[in-house]
Amino acid sequence: MPPADPTEKPLQPDVRDHLANERTFLAWMRTSLAIITFGIGLNRFSLYLNELARTGGPPTRTGTGRLGIAMVALGMGLLAWGAVRYELARRQIDARDFVAARVSPWVVTIVILAFSGVALFLVML
């Protein structure tokens, strides 16, 4: 039941807030696993290109192997950041003092776009 005074904080956090926080964490996890999978795919693709060059195909120096490793590291970092963000939000929900993130979604978006753009460029070489 909502408090009579709109400025008064309820005594117990709403369960829906915690469930939404968990769904958000699962979205961070799905995103990080997709990035890790993409990085592994790039790494495997680089091994294929190296083998192709070794057997008489055109020489390739795309750097996709290193980029694949970097994408795996990015995915692992994103998963760790999602866990930190989940815990921070959980504590803020419990304290009824939630503050939405303003900078980190933009930073994560820009980093992922940059890595994806470099990957696309290297694969297209």
Total helical elements: 3
Radius of gyration: 21 Å
Secondary-structure content class: mainly alpha
Helix residue percentage: over 70%
Q: In one word, what is the shape?
A: rod-shaped
Largest sheet descriptor? none
- Give a count of the beta strands, DSSP E runs of length 2 or more: 0
Average pLDDT, rounded to a whole number, is 85
Topology pattern, helix = H, strand = E: HHH
Low-confidence stretches: none
Could you say how many structural domains there are in total?
1
Report the β-strand fraction as a percent range: under 5%
Q: For the record, give the distance between the C-alpha atoms at the N and C termini, rounded to a whole number.
A: 61 Å
List keywords for this structure.
single chain, 125 residues, mainly alpha, 3 helices, rod-shaped
Describe this structure in words.
There is one protein chain. This protein is an all-alpha fold. It has one domain. Helix content is 74%, strand content 0%. α1 packs antiparallel against α2 and α2 packs antiparallel against α3. The mean pLDDT is 85.
Characterize this entry briefly.
This protein has 125 residues and is mainly α. The chain is built from three helices and no strands.
